[in-house]
Amino acid sequence: MAARPFLEQPDTGIDLVLGDLPTGELPKLDQMIGIPDFEWAAQNYLPIENYTYYRNGAAGEWSYRNNLEVFHRYRFKPRVMVDITNVESTLPTTILGHNFSAPFFISPCARAGNAHPDAELNFVKGAAEGDILYMPALYASRTIEEIAAAKAKGQVVFQQLYLTSNDTETQELFDRSKKAGADALVFTVDSAADGNRHRAARFGVGSADSDYSYITWDYYKKLQKMTDLPIIIKGIGSAKDAQLAVKHGAPAIILSNHGGRQLDGSPSGLEVALEIHEESPEVFKKIEVYADGGVRYGADVLKLLSLGVKAVGLGRPFMYANVFGVDGVKKVIDILKHEIAIDAGNLGVPDIHKINPSYVKWNVNSWNQ
């Protein structure tokens, strides 16, 4: 049997409705029905180089595709005749003790200016209005200070950083982040070397960080002594490293393969969460676990939450939505909140905080074959 082709966006009729839109034009925001629609809009509107920077993955892009498709390999086990009428009120959560309106956040992504002149300012403003967490990237189009100046009063942000073995530079970054009001630091560890990005190289849009990096567990312990801010580890790709993060005092980890942009063949956040659930379930109780990668629907969020993930990150969807500015960012937030609530209701989950692995059949089905 011939292999089924990979679908960049699902066929929900958007081509029938918007297929005649001239290249370089933006659809109306109210024509965006689901989160995948924003990629369609960005691809149609942006110069190919700008779109490619957001879209590209490593090598043959297997991990990129797997991030998107892995969620459909596991079936739900819906419960019926359950009172779910108050499920929407259970959306709020805490992340490292900070209150938010929903269990998802804007993951750190570089170069938001490729989509909109206001760049990351749209993310910080949209996150404030939607009352969700934003993690600004070190290689943002706007500086740490510019993003901080756009924050709402009392708004919580976690600053993402790439670090080197140069202690002076690292201390300067820590001090800048704290002075700018960061409530936590996000240390990306899954990019020790440059990503092998063929698509990006073809269009001349390489990685924002191309150096070999000194990243070890001993160095992490040293970093913890250089700041009083919590340092979250982003880029955990195995249960073993999740255990080591606990051992070395990490307050939280993010399961991530860098959007499939670093090592092709690396597992998705969902696969790592499942591995931890099966091999080291105590990790979910000892520290907070977040995950990102390929999330496009409320149902995707629920599958991650069911395994014990505390909050879920989205990167590319917000970068694509940024072609509409802050209103696009806000619409993605609204869509995802709505989908999480209605999907939880249809799954028979009256309280999102009480979802557990029993709501999903965790053996791979044949839908993707």
From TrEMBL:
Q: Which segments of the protein form a coiled coil according to its record?
A: none
The cross-references to PROSITE patterns, in alphabetical order and at most eight, read: FMN_HYDROXY_ACID_DH_1, FMN_HYDROXY_ACID_DH_2
Q: Does the keyword Glycoprotein apply?
A: no
Similarity-based family: Belongs to the FMN-dependent alpha-hydroxy acid dehydrogenase family.
* Record-listed FMN binding positions: 108-110, 160, 188, 234, 256, 258, 292-296, 315-316
Species: Fusarium solani (Filamentous fungus)
Q: Which cofactor does it need?
A: FMN
Q: Name one Pfam family in it.
A: FMN_dh
Q: Which GO terms describe its molecular function?
A: FMN binding; oxidoreductase activity
Q: What is this protein called?
A: FMN hydroxy acid dehydrogenase domain-containing protein
Q: Lineage of the source organism?
A: Eukaryota, Fungi, Dikarya, Ascomycota, Pezizomycotina
InterPro entries (alphabetical): Aldolase_TIM, Alpha-hydoxy_acid_DH_FMN, FMN-dep_DH, FMN_HAD, FMN_hydac_DH_AS, L-MDH/L-LDH_FMN-bd
Instruction: Report domain FMN hydroxy acid dehydrogenase positions.
Output: 27-365
Give the keywords, sorted. Flavoprotein, FMN, Oxidoreductase
Enumerate the active-site residues: H258
Residues given in the record as glyoxylate binding sites: Y53, Y162, R197, R261
